[in-house]
Amino acid sequence: MFADVVVNRPLWTSYTYLLPPDVSLDKGSFGVRVKVSLGHRDDIGWIVRLRDEGSLDINVERIKMIKEVVDSGSPLPRSLEELVEWVGEYYFSPLGMILATVFPPTVPPVMGSARDRTPDEDGNKPVVFMNRKENRVDAYVEMIKEELDFGRQVIVMLPDKNLINYVYERLRDVIPESVIAVWTASQVRRNWLSVRDGSKRVVLGSRSVVFAPTGDLGLIIVDEEASESYWQSRVPFYNARDVAIKRASIQGCKVVLGDSVPLVETVFKAAKGFYVFDKRRGSKRPRLGRINIVDMRTSNRKGVISSCVVETVERVLRKGGQSILLVNRKGYAGFIICGDCGFVPKCPNCSVSLTFYKERTRELRCNYCGYTESVPNVCPVCGGTNWLTYSAGVEQVYEVLATRFPNVNTAYIDSTLKKREIVSVINAFKENKVKILVSTVLFLSYLIDYQVENVSVVYADGLFNMPDFRSGERSFRIFDRLLEFVKDDGQLILQTFNPTYPIVRFFYAQQKWRFYRYELANRKELSYPPFSYIAVIEIKGREDNEAKSVAEGIHAELSRYDISVLGPVRPIPSKLRGYYRWRLVLKDVSWTRLHDLIKEKYYDILVNEGKIRVTVIVDPLMVD
């Protein structure tokens, strides 16, 4: 007997090996781990198919023997096997790398076969739970208790570790801690077998929890379903939110998509009857007085902060309250520029300007590859010394406020700080020792169930003016989430140079459904999802001309077919970590036609390009 084996490498094919004579496996052995020799090293792989000699088209004498069979039984439920194969085909991702996510090599040997619940006959539609976080979590707890009463398992997918810990603490109060498993990188090995055998009934985790080996699955909850953290942006590509919907379909269980501002596509499908809205209520409609729009074109301001924000912070401080200022940029300034000749220092590895970090290191840093250099004393082009800063970051706003309020404890956080530094600032803020916090969107995942008197967005335009068709939706969602951090008598302030922009107007008036209608109309006109399907082909190479030539060749080939092929264009940044980049965007109203074309041409055009790296990204989050 022979076995086709895949390994945890970016390889889009399987390799055939001979089973040891003392090993007997049945046809349902998908996912059994084996130790094999591949190339010049030994590797752990997974069986994806058993074959007899008659089905082989290669010389049997050249086939290597499997060195060791790790598992004695079928490790995965049949439904999970079907899901893994779907993810590999849909996202054009290597099966071995998906299986390494589903069934890590470090899990102890598996004995016996996995259980699988018989799917429900009625076929459940995804449920959209459009409510604020505090109401959603309360509802989740009740849903989970109901499934446990029926003896079923539940997967709860959450966007970050802080929210996982929060929900875990909430659940411990109402169900036995012994039945809860946390699916983080450090705990998967410990919990994998107990989830598989059903002793752990509730599984909490982020992206990869969607692959937890639950055989008796009754419910999948996807909280903050629009979160970009559910998108795996490296090989193997997949969107865990969409995988959850597919798994629920395969396994015949319920799936709940929770968010205060769901994806535009989700609302569209619910309106068309493919999904259903949960009718539960509970969240109060915010009073309109809580939102204040500051027109930065006419506002009395000094630098990036308006007098309205300064006066609000001052008033809040007099009452002993706290303020949060959101700045959508790390560091001190987006870039520095020579005031004499206009030279801007750029990263040698990426085609982007270097961000200026002043507070701790006083250096220029690339936010993509991490390259750093000192701020030059003189301009290398003209010898000038007049350096100017542009595009204020968290450090600069922090400096302005610390100068304006010298006797007030002010702090800032962004993702360049170490985690212990971030936690230290957050804890001090929660203890009311820090009165003013300047942060990127990072604080959203750290401050759960915490409200302040004032939240101000320093530059709202930077959110909705991103070169991406989802930027309006993304900014509306962030604004809406910020309301959750404002006390009933507090205020959310948006500073903008475009106060009449539709996204701003709809948010100010709390007209969520008008916002969705506006977004859908725009997307229909430009043929963006949900009115089309998109795939991106990215071409990377050390030599720009070579990468461009391959991109043009792919464009010429695919343009022969009845789909829309845009590009090739340079994405932002056009050079990343030493590789020049070109991008094609494929659009079609038929997913089947688009997918089948990519599948047909995949190995001929997209993979075998020598030094050039070609990647297919299905349903991309951003198209810039």
Explained architecture:
The chain is α/β, with parallel strands linked by helices and 624 residues long. The protein folds into four domains: 2-77 and 89-102, 3-Layer(aba) Sandwich (GIY-YIG endonuclease); 127-277, Rossmann fold (3-Layer(aba) Sandwich); 288-330 and 393-522, Rossmann fold, CATH 3.40.50; 533-618, Ribosomal protein S10 (Alpha-Beta Plaits), CATH 3.30.70. Helices cover 30% and strands 25% of the residues. The chain is built from 16 helices and 32 strands. The chain has a seven-stranded parallel beta sheet with strand order 8-9-7-10-13-6-14, with helices on both faces. The longest helix is centred in the first third of the chain and has 17 residues, at 133-149. The chain starts with a strand and ends in a 6-residue tail after the last strand.
Task: Give a quick rundown of the structure.
The chain is α/β, with parallel strands linked by helices.
What's the story with the biggest beta sheet? 7 strands, parallel
Radius of gyration: 27 Å
Report the end-to-end length measured between terminal Cα atoms.
Answer: 50 Å
- Kindly report the CATH topology of the largest domain: Rossmann fold
> What is the CATH class of the largest domain?
Alpha Beta
Query: CATH H-level name of the largest domain... which superfamily?
Result: P-loop containing nucleotide triphosphate hydrolases
Strand-residue proportion? 15-25%
Quaternary class? single chain
| Whole-number total of structural domains | 4
Q: So what's the overall shape? A: globular
Q: In what order do the strands lie side by side in the largest sheet?
A: 8-9-7-10-13-6-14
The assigned CATH architecture of the largest domain is: 3-Layer(aba) Sandwich
- Count of DSSP H/I helices: 16
Count of individual beta strands? 32
Mean pLDDT: 88
Overall SS class: alpha/beta
Uncertain runs are: none
Helix percentage: 25-40%
